[in-house]
Amino acid sequence: MKKILILALVALVAGFSSCKKDESTPLINQNKTAQATPQTADKRVSKCDAIPQTCGTAQVVELIAGQHINVGTVSIANGPTNMTVTYSTIDNWTLRDIHLFVGDCAHMPVNKEGEPSPGRFPYTVNLSGGVHTYTFTIPLSGLGSCVCIAAQAEVSCGRNTETAWGAGTKFTQRCGWATYFNYCKQSCGGSACIIPANLLFSGESAWPNGVNSIVVGGYTYTLATIMPVLSAPSGDATAALFGVATLKIYGSTISPPASVLSDAAIVESWLSTLGQLNSNSQFTASASIEASIYNVQSWEASQVCH
Description:
Elements: E1 27-28, E2 35-39, E3 55-65, E4 69-78, E5 82-89, E6 94-103, E7 123-131, E8 133-139, E9 146-157, E10 160-166, E11 169-170, E12 179-184, H1 197-200, E13 213-216, E14 219-222, H2 223-226, H3 236-250, H4 258-271, H5 287-302
Antiparallel strand pairs: 1-7, 2-8, 3-4, 3-10, 4-5, 5-8, 6-7, 6-9, 9-10, 9-12, 11-12, 13-14
Helix pairs in contact: 3-4, 3-5, 4-5
């Protein structure tokens, strides 16, 4: 059987209504070159304001306080030279102290138990009066194609103060609830670049475009149902599913050639005969189907985020 290019290898190329809002002057860590921009919820952008270019599609994760309270979002985007990380709160929640890490996962400041140490994160700001939106601007130079992001903040509403984290993967499974997530630089060539499969389907990186579920071969997949397929025995079906699923997740933000779309349709038709895939699925495709799988994955490999 012809060897299939497994998409995972692409990774080698990984009562709160009475709250009162105050204005304050932020104090930012001056040791970093990142710039930060606080904004109030009712600020309007002037026609004269410079609007930074955003490439590809912004990645948005929930900002979760007290382990289960959705108090807003953390949005990450990049232009040709800079990355922006924007904290935004909803309702009457406001931001207080913010600590942010962006960089190589191996360099994340953690204690001996493996829990993060926000006080040692490189980007910090004190918003003692509370604001609804805050943006860090970080140069891309020196950052890898994919980075770890740990976005922590103290948020408050009235007398209620909570610690919030940008939703993602827990640092440890034994204790604590701090989380981190991955972000891959978006291409500025007119079409979004593709996040490697080991990040896209393992929960380490949010699906772009706000996608929560997709239908492949007549079966609905969410992140929870597609993650187990990563551990399935190596087989054509796994590669086929990831190839078609990636195209569906990105939708119109990528521009595959007609030949790739034709091959994807052939592959999806074959997947429809297999049932919904799981961690035990292992199927062998015919030579012609195998060739179509290879063509889809080869094109996606050429579009990976760098």
